[in-house]
Write a structure and sequence with these properties.
By secondary structure, the chain is mainly alpha-helical. The chain has a single domain, classed as TerB-like (Orthogonal Bundle), CATH 1.10.3680. The chain is built from seven helices and no strands.
């Protein structure tokens, strides 16, 4: 299980993929950090100095999905999706044990507004179709 600081750091790395942390991305990071129980001061500290991206493959499946969901939300936060952000999300997906195509598939069902809730079970079903095989074949 990743710490709250590691979870926020992943989102910070994504938000910096296009070299600029947009206001919407900044607010989403603070929103998610608050939901994880981190103080605003700690979240701001992580935005300035994120931790390295941890090893993700050994996480429980529900945590893997949560990370996938949050990185897609972050990618969409400023309303502009850059190729660097897509590549970063695909890299995270691979590190989580998914095929990179899962990003494009789930993006159609995940909203940038954190108050709009998606059908979690439906999204998990879609994501599960893109799990890489245990032997590493895609």
């Amino acid at each position: 299980m990743l710490s709250q600081e590691e979870q926020i750091s992943i989102l910070v790395h994504l938000s910096k993929a296009d070299k600029v942390v947009a206001e919407e991305e900044y607010r989403l990071i603070l929103f998610i950090a608050d939901g994880l129980g981190l103080t605003e001061a700690k979240a701001k500290e992580l935005i300035e100095n994120p931790r390295p991206i941890p090893y993700l493959k050994n996480l429980p499946s529900d945590e893997k999905f949560d990370y996938l969901f949050n990185v897609i939300r972050m990618m969409k936060a400023d309303g502009k999706i850059h190729s660097n952000e897509i590549k970063f999300c695909e890299k995270i997906a691979i590190n989580l044990g998914y095929k990179p195509r899962v990003i494009a598939k789930l993006s159609a069902y995940i909203y940038k507004d954190p108050t709009i809730h998606s059908n979690r079970e439906k999204l998990i079903g879609i994501a599960d179709q893109y799990l890489s095989s245990p032997n590493g074949n895609n």
